[in-house]
Amino acid sequence: MNADVIVIGSGISGLTTAALLAKAGRKVVVLERHGRPGGAIKRFTRQGIPFDIGFHYTGCLGDGEILRALWKYLDVLPRISLLPFPSDGCDCLHMKESGKIVRAFFDRDLLQCELERVFPDELPGIKGYLQRVEEICSTVPFYNTDLPLTPFLRGFSRPDGGLATFLSSLTDDEDLQSALASPSFLYGVPPEAASLAVHAMVAYSYFSGAYSIDGGGQAIVDAFLSVLNTTGAQVLCGRDVRSIIVKNGHVTGVDTGEEEIRASDVVFTGHPSGVLNMVPDEIFRPAYRHRLRDLKNTGSMFVVFGAVEYSEKVRELTWVNRYSVPGGLNIMDVNREHPEESTLLLTAPGLRDKDFALSEATSGVILMRAADWNEAAPFDQGRGPRRSPAYREWKDEAAAKLIEKAEQLWDDIGKIRLLAAGTPLTFRDELAAPMGAVYGPQHSLDQHNPGARTRLPGLWLSGQGTLMTGVMGSSLAGLVTAGEMNDLEFLWQEVKKCL
């Protein structure tokens, strides 16, 4: 088989890169090692209930915003149905120690009013935070689209002030610190290690609204597959790439173990360190290999996918995500003795489907907490199809404790029945993420993440490890990679025409 470009991985970044290159006239083949495409944003079902793994909501899909423009440019937008969060939709933060409730609205002005209501003695700090976030994002082309993209990307990794230092300079109120730091859940870096610039870019993406998609992440995947089908691009599942073929110092294709597929360009969208096992050792200098192998990773998660009896109280979860968080800047920490006492999230994204009343989504809820790789590491027996009885016992016990804690915190939703659970081992195996790092490598103060280009001609990187995390960050990473392969500023101008 021959192609112009092979894209390894069919998550949102791989699908975006493939769609952009196919639109530009390249013959594209997407290879996915699992049986279904979609990576972390596809859905799965248990007892007829659909669950989203990695997509719950996103920003930047409003008029004049960049993700909407990108999906419009790719003809994805007409194939999905946007579900904007209503004005009272929010992340509802319950502060563990004080009992305060902070509604983190997806609207800049509403958020400021809420923060000022809960923290009336902290007005300078609140205004200082919001103003600094806006100042930073005025220099980011994804938010200020009058700016050229290339100069921003070349300076993207320059160090800046840290989030923890900044928040500590604004306020001593630990509950306010926690509330302002809460967007760190969306990129997985503890405040003490987080870059203020990265934090600002994530927080700002929700200042104009949050959006779900009818059908969840699976609807996004299906829309991209439809677009790729119209361009003649192929998506082949069950293809585990064994090696990237290199001849005379240039990529010439890949070997799946079953066949060789020829192409002059290969895009790898997984964790950047994963590419090292696919090329000969001598391809990259030792310093580059160490840089990729030693990347600090984001944390993992323990997730319960459960069912509850549908009620009006459960219906309130449709547009409100409930959090239980500690005060201060340790909101990402895992309580080693009692992990269920760590930050918790309760969400029910399936309720947002337009036809939820006709489906089993009405009873589906998702519980999430931060998790440490060391919790699951003792049970690691490699990437095999079966786990040990000891692992299953630990997982069931951890899930039961998490459910018990959630039922204590939110007794109005009733009993939660366990249907499935995901652990750091699950994320390691399903997402090929070292130590189950759900957001891949950290975008942090002291880390220089790789960009789209590599020193091997024809080999490119994409995915959330290269630019930003989440659906928007991974989508924009696909845009950058496709642009670097052709003409970045030309592509940037073409996408901006769809604003």
Helix and strand topology:
Blueprint (H helix, E strand, L loop, with lengths): L4 E4 L3 H12 L4 E5 L10 E4 L2 E4 L13 H8 L8 E3 L5 E6 L5 E5 L2 H11 L4 H15 L12 H5 L8 H8 L3 H8 L14 H9 L6 E3 L2 H16 L2 E4 L5 E5 L2 E6 L4 E3 L2 E4 L17 H8 L6 E8 L4 H4 L4 E6 L18 E4 L16 E8 L1 H4 L12 H21 L7 E6 L1 H8 L27 E3 L8 H16 L2 H9 L3
Parallel strand pairs: 1-2, 1-13, 2-9, 6-15, 13-19
Antiparallel strand pairs: 3-4, 5-8, 6-7, 10-11, 11-12, 14-17, 14-18, 15-16, 16-17
Helix pairs in contact: 1-9, 1-15, 3-4, 4-8, 15-16
Offer a few descriptive terms:
five-stranded parallel β-sheet, globular, alpha/beta, FAD/NAD(P)-binding domain, seven-stranded mixed β-sheet, 499 residues
How would you describe this protein?
With 499 residues, the protein is of the alpha/beta class. The protein has three domains: 5-81 and 213-295 and 445-496, FAD/NAD(P)-binding domain; 109-206, no CATH class; 299-438, no CATH class. The protein is 32% helix and 18% strand. It has helices at 12-23, 66-73, 108-118, 123-137, 150-154, 163-170, 174-181, 196-204, 216-231, 286-293, 312-315, 373-376, 389-409, 424-431, 470-485, 488-496; strands at residues 5-8, 28-32, 43-46, 49-52, 82-84, 90-95, 101-105, 211-213, 234-237, 243-247, 250-255, 260-262, 265-268, 300-307, 320-325, 344-347, 364-371, 417-422, 459-461. The strands form five sheets. The chain has a seven-stranded mixed β-sheet with strand order 7-6-15-16-17-14-18, sandwiched between helices. It has a five-stranded parallel β-sheet with strand order 9-2-1-13-19, covered by helices on one side. Strands 10-11-12 form a three-stranded antiparallel β-sheet, with no helix packed on it. Helix 1 (12-23) links the parallel strand 1 and strand 2. Helix 1 runs parallel beside helix 9 and helix 1 packs parallel to helix 15. The longest helix is centred in the C-terminal third of the chain and has 21 residues, at 389-409. The protein is globular and about 65 Å long. The mean pLDDT is 94.
